[in-house]
Design a protein that fits this description.
There is one protein chain. By secondary structure, the chain is mainly α. It has three domains: 7-105, no CATH class; 108-137; 140-179, no CATH class. The chain contains seven helices and no strands. α1 (7-20) runs antiparallel to α2 (25-39), α3 crosses α4 and α6 runs antiparallel to α7. The longest helix has 44 residues, at 62-105. The chain is extended.
Length: 185
């Protein structure tokens, strides 16, 4: 425990990183390492590593277990409680507010149009990303296989209620046996 560290300074770090880091627990814990170990020197690499390892072993939300452990090292139970509350409460309040705002605005034609436009943009970005992944493999006589395998997996999953993991496994198996001209096994 680091008694000289004001609880307010610790709280601000957990509030900022816990609520502004996107991507889930691992990016949040990496940002915490940069802040708590590298930039501020509040935790040693060993303390961070132990908090991270124990958090990964804990059932439930690993990032909350990590925040509790790291803050406990720094300020004991008060730090752990503050860290967990500051990482969860603001995001939860924002989520409830956004859900309420969505429910209120979905009756408004202008808002519905904006939401539809954002949805179309998101679908377009996903399609563009998929194309960037597929394009290098779709050359020469491989177009049919490159397009048929993912389409077949989607049809199995969506049209015939085959669980996605099984549909992907079947596509992988088909891809293994369906070789293009001149490909070695």
């Amino acid at each position: 425990m680091t008694p000289f560290l004001p609880l307010g300074r610790l709280a601000l770090v957990f509030l900022r990183i816990g609520n502004l880091t996107l991507g889930g627990g691992n990016p949040t814990m990496a940002a915490m390492e940069r802040e708590l170990v590298e930039h501020r020197g509040w935790l040693s690499a060993e303390q961070y590593g132990l908090a991270y390892a124990l958090a990964r072993l804990t059932p439930g939300t690993n990032v909350l277990a990590f925040c509790a452990g790291a803050a406990w090292y720094l300020r004991g139970w008060r730090g752990a409680l503050a860290a967990v509350l500051l990482v969860t409460v603001p995001c939860s309040v924002l989520t409830v507010w956004l859900t309420h705002a969505y429910e209120t605005l979905k009756a408004n034609p202008l808002a519905t149009g904006a939401i539809s436009g954002m949805l179309a943009a998101a679908v377009g970005m996903m399609a563009a990303a998929a194309w960037r992944l597929i394009r290098p493999h779709a050359r020469g006589g491989q177009w049919a296989r490159t397009l048929a395998l993912p389409a077949g997996a989607a049809i199995l999953s969506l049209g015939f209620a085959v669980p996605p993991i099984q549909a992907l496994a079947l596509a992988a198996l088909a891809g293994f046996f369906w070789r293009g001209p001149g490909e070695n096994r």
